[in-house]
Every structure is written in C-alpha cells, then in structure tokens.
Amino acid sequence: MAGDSDVSETPLRPLVIRAVVIGIAMVLLDLPLRTAAVPLGVVQYEFAWTAETATEMIDSWADVRLFAWGSLLVDYAFMWAYASLIAGLAGRALAPSAARLAGSAAWAAAGFDAVENVGLIAMFARGATSGWALTAGVAASIKFALLAAAIVAILWGFATRRSRAA
Description:
By secondary structure, the chain is mostly helical. Helix content is 78%, strand content 0%.
C-alpha cells in the first residue's frame, strides 16, 4: 500500500542503541533493589503472586524507593524500545507475514508489560493486594511467553535464512 514502510528497511542501529541504553538504565536502577527479600530485583516483584509476598518485597525497598519508582517508570520507555527492536529484527529475519506476526507478538508483550506495570505501581503506591499481585504475575507470564516466541521465531528465521543462502 502507498505510504506503508517496509519493516525490513527500518534501520536497526538506532533501535539497538535505544534498547541497549534504556536496558542499561534499567539494570542500574534494579541493582539497589536486589535485597535479601528480593534477590532477583524487579523481575521477582513481577512474580510476587500474593499480596503478602509483594508487601515483603516493597518493605525491603524502604531505603531505595526512588530506584523502584525509577525502574517502574523507565520500564515504559523500555517497552517501546524492545518492541520496536524485536519488530525490526523480525522484518529482517522472517517472511513478511511471519514478521508481522512476530512484531505483533512483541507489541502485545509490551501491552501486557504495561498492564503488569500498572499493577506493580498500584501496589507500590497504595499497598499490595491479591488482585494486583495476580494481575501482574499473569501479565508478566504472558509477556515473557510472547517475547520468547517472537525471539525464537527471529532466531529460526536468521538460521534458516543463512542455510537457504548457502
């Protein structure tokens, strides 16, 4: 269609740089959040599953609340960065229909990540509830499953592309 841009022509360098820079910021914000109660940091908080567990985690961050807020808020930029990068890589590795599917999975994952973050922020700001802990855990599970599927498809695409070219 006129006006549609070909995803396979999207320059990857800016997408990679953006994802790496924001990813490094996320790692740096997460380091102080790795406490005895939360040795895996924010990713572990995503899978608290219960209000009690989430409360323990939040309480362990009493002295580093700013890092937790920063991590939760910067994650919204990271969602955009990783979804853009995965969609761009899919355009390079896969046939157009498969690239659209993998790219859609990446953007859907970012949507589930946003839902998850709403729950994490609500618990952090107002206290943990079982509903938000469950919502965050389910959304995080779906997010990671979608990302894994998209990444596996991209890796398969690059691998089979090389073998077809040989």
